[in-house]
Amino acid sequence: MTDAPQLAQVVIHERTGESCIAQNKVFCPGWAIDNFDRYVDPALQQVVLVVVSVALGFAIAFALALLAHRRRWLVPPLIGVTGVFYTIPSLAFFFLLIPISGRGRDTAIIALTAYTLQIIFRNIMAGLANVPREVKDAGRGMGLTERQLLWRVELPLALPEIIAGLRVATVSTVALATLAAFAGGGGLGEEILSNIDFKTGIVIAGGLAILMAFAFDVILIGIQRLLTPWRRAVPA
Amino acid sequence: MAGPVQHDGGSSGAAKAAAVRYDHVTKRYPGQEEPALTDLDLEVPAGEICVLVGPSGCGKTTAMRMVNRTVEITEGDIFVGDTSVREREPARLRRETGYVIQQVGLFPHRTVADNVATVPQLLGWDAKRTAARVEELLALVGLERELAGRYPAQLSGGQQQRVGVARALAADPPVMLMDEPFGAIDPITRERLQNEFLRLQGEIRKTILFVTHDIDEAIKMGDRVAVLKAGGRLAQYATPAELLMDPADEFVEDFVGADRALKRLALMRVSDIDLWKAPLAFVGQATSEVRAKLNGAEVPHALLVDSDRRPIGWLSERDLSADVVPERADSPPDPVLDLDDVMRDALADLLRSGTQYAPVTDAEGRIAGVLSVEIISEFLNSPRALSEEHAATERPHD
Fold it and tell me: Is residue A37 within 8 Å of A29, Cβ to Cβ?
C-alpha cells in the first residue's frame, strides 16, 4: 500500500492550498495540478488492463463466434456460459479468482476478459445474422467458398455490429478496471482505494477513467469509419 | 449434344456458349412427400434463352439452381456441354456460370467496379486484365464510367440490376442463370431492361436459363419456354409461338391466358406480315391519275408522298377535287409505323389513334406498305402464323 507517501503529500499541500484540502472539498484544482504526475502510471496501467482484456476477449469471442457460425447448435450454450460470466458480481469474481491465480494483474485481466465475452460474442453473431440473405446467395452463386464468403463478405458487412460490441465492451471494461485494484491489478482504482475519503483524488481518478472511456470510444468510432466507407456513401 | 459451341455474330465477337441438358432430373427435399421437380428432361441449345415459367411452387427455381449446384440433384443428371455438373466442384462450376437474382445481391461494401470484378478476382486475373474487363462490361450493360467508384446503395434499382448482369458476365460464362431478374423493378424500367437484355443477348449469345412467374415475360424473353406445373412436372416445352398456338393441355392454356392470340403479336414485327399497298400520289400529279389508281385498290385512300416517297398525309375527296395533287393533305398520315415495330405496339398505335390504316416506312422513312387492323386479324386467324418460325427466333429490337 502507498499510505505513507500519500499522507506526506497531503501534509505538504496543506501549506499551499491548505483550506481546500483541509476542508476536503469536492475538487481542489491547485492540488490536482501539483499532483497530476502520480496519476500517470495508474492511468497507463488501466489502459493496459483495458486493451489487453478487450483484445483477449475479442480473440476468444471471435473464435467462438466463427465456431458457432457453422455449428448453430453451439449458440445457446455459448451465450449461456458467457452470460454466466457476465452476471457474476465483479467484486466477487475478483475475490473468487485470487485463490486460483493470485493477486495481481493477471487475475484482473482474466476477470475483465471474461466480462467482455458476452457482449462481443453476441454482437459478432448479430452482425453475421444481419448480412442480407440475397448477398450471401449471390456470393455463393458466383463461386465464393464458405471461407471466402465469411472473410470477404460476411465479416466486412458485420463490422458495424462488431465494432459496436467492442465499444460497449471497452467502455464497460474501463469502468470495471477501476475495481481491478481489489485484486491487486493496479490502475486508477488503486488511487481511489488508497484514500477513500480524499474527494479531490477520487474526482481526478474518476474523471480520468471517464476521459479514458471517451477516448477509447472515439478511437473505435474512427476505426469503424475508416473500415466501413460504404456506410457513409450518400445515395446519389 | 455437342459441347461448347462457338457462336458467330455480335459486335463483341465470338462468345462461348454451351448447351444445358436435363437428363431425367428429380429433386426431393427432405421431409417432403412430393418431389419439387419430377423427371425433368429437356435440352436448351447453346446460345438460347430457355424460360422456366409456372405458378409458385412449381419447382422452376429449383430446376434452375441445380445447374450451378446451389441446389443438389436427387436423381438424374444435368450436363453443361458434355460435362455432368455432378462431376464438377461446386465453387468452380459456379465461377463458370453467370448468376443473377431478383434481389440482385450486390455486395454493399464493395464499389460497382469491385462487385463486377468478383469472379475475375476469384479466378486470379491480374489487376490490369480485371480493370479492362470491368470497363468493357459497364459499357456493355450501358452504365456510365463514373459509376464504377460508387457503392450499390448509391444506385437506382435499374442500375443495380445492370451491375448484377455485368457481374454475372464478368468471366464470360457459357451459361447464365437468371432468377426473376427483373421481378423487383417497376414496370417501365422492367420493360426497358428486358429490351436491353435481349439486345445484349443478341451480342453475347449465352445459354440462359431464365426463371419467371410472368407468362408475358416468358413469351417475350424466351427462345423456348418450359411451362412447369405443381410437383415440378413439365407441362410443355416449346417455342413461344407454339405455346400460344398450340397449348399442350388445359393447364398450359389457362396459364398462357385467354389473350394468347394477342400475345402472339408481341413476337412479331410489322415486317413479318404482308402489308397492303395504298395508291401513292405525288405533289403536282394529275388527280385523274390518282383516281384511276384508287379503283380496286387494297386501300381505298390515296397517300400523298414526297419525292423520296416519304408519307405526307392521306388525300381526302376534297383534296382530289382539284386538277393536280396539292402540297398538303387534309389528314395527317399518323400513326406512321416502322417495319421494325413490334406488331403488338403497332396495333396499339392503330387503336389509339382511331384510324383504320397506318403507313409503314422503312429505315429511310420511305413508304413500304400500309398496315390495317384487318390485316392483323386475318393474320391471327390464318394457320400460317404457327409456321412463322422467325416469330420465335427473331426478336423485336426496339
Answer: no
Can you read off the three cell numbers belonging to residue B242? Answer: 407454339
Q: What is the pTM of this model?
A: 0.74
Taking the C-alpha atoms of residue A50 and residue A174, their distance in angstroms, rounded to an integer, is: 6
CA-angle at A194, arms to A189 and A195, nearest 5°: 110
Closest among B306, B316, B325 to B365, alpha carbons compared:
B306
State the Cα–Cα distance between residues B363 and B340, nearest whole angstrom: 8
Q: Which pLDDT band holds residue A16 (cuts at 50, 70, 90)? A: low
Is B95 in Cβ contact with A143 (below 8 Å)? yes
Per CB-CB distance under 8 Å, the chain B contacts of A234 are: 154
Residues B345-366, mean pLDDT to the nearest whole number: 85
Number of A to B CB contacts under 8 A, please give it. 79
Residue B47 has pLDDT above 50, yes or no: yes
Would you state the pLDDT for residue B9?
A: 37
Q: Using pLDDT thresholds of 50, 70 and 90, give the confidence band for residue B12.
A: very low
Residue A142 contacts B where some CB pair is shorter than 8 Å:
yes
Residue B212, CB half-sphere, CA atoms under 13 Å: how many? 22
Grid cell 400475345 in the structure block, residue: B263
Cα–Cα distances (Å) from B390 to A170, B204, B246, B261, B266, in that order, read 70, 20, 17, 17, 13
Longest dimension (CA), chain A: 78
Phi-psi sector, B7: left (phi>0), alpha (psi -120 to 50), beta: beta
- Report the alpha-carbon distance of residue B13 to residue B9 in Å, rounded: 6
In sequence order, what E strands does chain B have?
5-7, 15-17, 20-27, 37-44, 49-53, 75-80, 83-84, 97-101, 175-179, 207-212, 224-229, 233-238, 280-282, 302-305, 311-315, 337-338, 357-361, 367-372
Short-list B14, B9, B50, CA closest to B243: B50
**Structural element, H or E, at residue B134:** helix B127-140
Torsion of CA A225, A226, A230, A234, to 10 degrees: 60
To the nearest whole angstrom, how far is the Cα of B350 from the nearest Cα of chain A?
A: 40
Closest CA–CA distance from residue A226 to any residue of chain B (Å): 12
Q: Measured between CA atoms, how close is B274 to chain A, in angstroms?
A: 47
End-to-end Cα spacing for chain A: 62
- Mean pLDDT, chain A, integer: 88
Q: What is the mean pLDDT of residues B243-257?
A: 87
ipTM over 0.90: no
Q: Name the H helices within B177-232.
A: 187-204, 215-221
What CA–CA distance (Å, rounded) separates B59 from B233? 8
Q: Report chain B's mean pLDDT, rounded to a whole number.
A: 86
pLDDT at B391 over 50: no
CB of B361 within 8 A of CB of B346?
A: no
Q: Which residues of A111-142 are buried (b: 16+ CB within 10 A; e: fewer)?
A: bbbbbbbbbbbbbbbebbeebeeebbbbbbbb
